[in-house]
C-alpha cells in the first residue's frame, strides 16, 4: 500500500508516520520507484504497537524506541546501551540469557522513571527479602517499589507483612502463568516480543481489572443489590 | 509549629504550602495571633499524602483535590459533583452506600483519564461478563479496561479467555483481602480513607511487585543461577 493508505488505515497523521520512519521506529517501505515506497501489514501492526506503548502504557517516544530496539535487535546496540548506560539492566554477573536481560531493560523503559534514585532501598529490599525473591538492587523495579512503599506510608496505609505476602503470592502466580505461555515457536525474537511487550502492555490491563475487582467486591459487600432481571445497567451476574 | 517548620519537616517549598492552603487541600492552621498560625502533625501527614498522590500515583493536583474532598467531605459537594459531572461514579440506581460511590469516584480520579470515551466498550464488557462481575458501563475502569485491551491487541498479545480467568481470579482474591482489612474503628471517614487511598496508592506497589515477580520467575526459569554465598548482588534466596 502507499503511505497515504497507511495513514488512512492507522488514523495516524502523515507527519507522524514520517517521523516514525526518520526515527527508525518504523522500517522503510520497499522502494518501487524513485518517488514511491510500498508498505505492508507489518507497518500497520508496528504503528499500532507504537501507539499502544505511547498512548496506553504511557512511554515517551524515546522509551518506545528503546523497547522496539530490544525487540528488533536482541543483543544489539540497544541491549549494549542498556547495560552500559543508566537505563537498562546492569551487568549483574548473571549469564547473559538475553531474554532475562531484555526483560530487565523493558522494565527500565516503563514509567515511573527514577534514574536518580540510588541504593539503598530499605523498604523495597526488606520486602523482597521477606518474600524470598531473586533481585538486584540495580533493577529499575526495586527503586520503583521503594518509592511506591514510601507513598503508601505517607498516605497512612503502610504495607504490612501480611498484605505483602498475599499480594506477592498472587502476583507471582500471575507471573508464573505469563512465563508458562511464552511462545515456543517463532524463536528468540517472538519470545523477546512476548516478554517485553507483555510486561509493558499488560500493566494497564492489570490496573483496570484490579479497580473493577475492588468495585465488584465492594458492591457485593456493601449492600448494592444484584441488578434486576433484564436491567441494562448495572450489568453482571 | 510555625509554617517555616512545616516547610522544613516536609521538604515542600513555602510557596507550594501556601498554594495547598489557598486551594483548600491543606486545612488552615490555628490562628494564634494576627500574623501567625500554628500547624500540627495532621498538616505534616496531609502534605505527605498530597505528594504521594501527585508524585507517585501520578494524579494532577486538581484530581488530588478531588480525592482529598472525597475523604474530607464524604457525601458532600465533591461527591455531588462527581455524580453530576463526568468525573465521578454516575447515578447507577444502586443505594447510596457512600463507600461504594466514593470508591467509584476515586477510580475516576486515577489515570488514565478517558472522559471522552463513550460506551459501548465491547472488549471490556465481554471480559467482565466472562468473569461474572457486577459492573456498570459508566464506571471509569470499564473505559480504562477497554483501552488497555485494545492496546494488548495492537501489540500482538491479545487477551485470551484463559489469561483473563487467571488474572481475574488472583486480582479478585487481592481485592477480597483488601476489603477484609477495612478498618472497623474510626468510623466512615477512616473506611473511606482506606478504600479511596488504598485504590489510588497501591496501584504503583502492585505494578512494581508484578515486574519484580516477572524478573524473579524469568531468572529462575532462564538459568540465572542463585547468587553465590556472601555475594552482595544479586540478592535473594
TrEMBL record, chains A, B:
Q: Name one GO molecular function term.
A: DNA-binding transcription factor activity
The record's annotation in Pfam families points to:
MerR_1
Ranges for the region named Disordered are 74-94
- Indicate whether DNA-binding appears among the record's keywords: yes
Give the InterPro entries listed for this entry.
Answer: DNA-bd_dom_put_sf, MerR-type_HTH_dom, MerR_fam
Out of the domains of life, which is the source?
Answer: Bacteria
Residues in HTH merR-type domain copies:
1-70
Q: Which SMART domains match?
A: HTH_MERR
Q: Give the keywords, sorted.
A: DNA-binding
Q: What is this protein called?
A: DNA-binding transcriptional MerR regulator
Q: Which organism is it from?
A: Leifsonia shinshuensis
Amino acid at each position: 500500500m502507499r503511505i497515504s493508505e497507511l495513514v488512512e488505515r492507522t488514523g495516524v497523521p502523515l507527519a507522524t508516520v514520517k517521523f516514525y520512519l526518520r526515527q527508525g521506529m518504523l522500517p522503510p517501505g520497499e522502494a518501487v520507484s524513485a518517488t514511491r515506497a510500498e508498505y505492508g501489514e507489518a507497518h500497520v501492526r508496528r504503528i499500532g504497537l507504537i501507539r499502544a506503548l505511547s498512548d496506553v502504557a504511557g512511554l515517551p517516544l524515546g522509551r518506545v524506541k528503546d523497547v522496539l530496539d530490544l525487540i528488533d535487535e536482541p543483543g544489539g546496540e540497544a541491549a549494549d546501551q542498556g547495560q552500559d548506560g543508566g537505563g537498562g539492566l546492569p551487568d549483574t554477573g548473571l549469564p547473559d540469557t538475553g531474554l532475562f536481560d531484555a526483560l530487565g531493560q523493558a522494565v527500565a523503559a516503563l514509567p515511573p522513571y527514577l534514574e536518580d534514585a540510588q541504593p539503598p532501598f530499605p523498604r523495597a529490599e526488606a520486602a523482597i527479602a521477606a518474600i524470598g525473591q531473586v533481585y538486584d538492587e540495580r533493577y529499575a523495579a526495586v527503586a520503583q517499589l521503594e518509592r511506591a512503599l514510601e507513598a503508601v506510608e505517607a498516605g497512612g496505609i503502610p504495607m504490612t507483612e501480611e498484605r505483602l505476602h498475599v499480594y506477592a503470592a498472587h502476583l507471582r502466580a500471575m507471573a508464573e502463568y505469563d512465563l508458562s505461555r511464552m511462545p515456543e515457536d517463532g524463536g528468540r525474537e517472538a519470545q523477546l516480543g512476548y516478554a517485553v511487550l507483555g510486561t509493558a502492555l499488560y500493566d494497564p490491563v492489570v490496573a483496570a481489572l484490579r479497580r473493577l475487582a475492588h468495585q465488584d467486591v465492594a458492591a457485593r459487600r456493601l449492600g448494592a443489590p444484584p441488578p434486576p432481571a433484564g436491567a441494562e445497567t448495572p450489568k453482571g451476574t
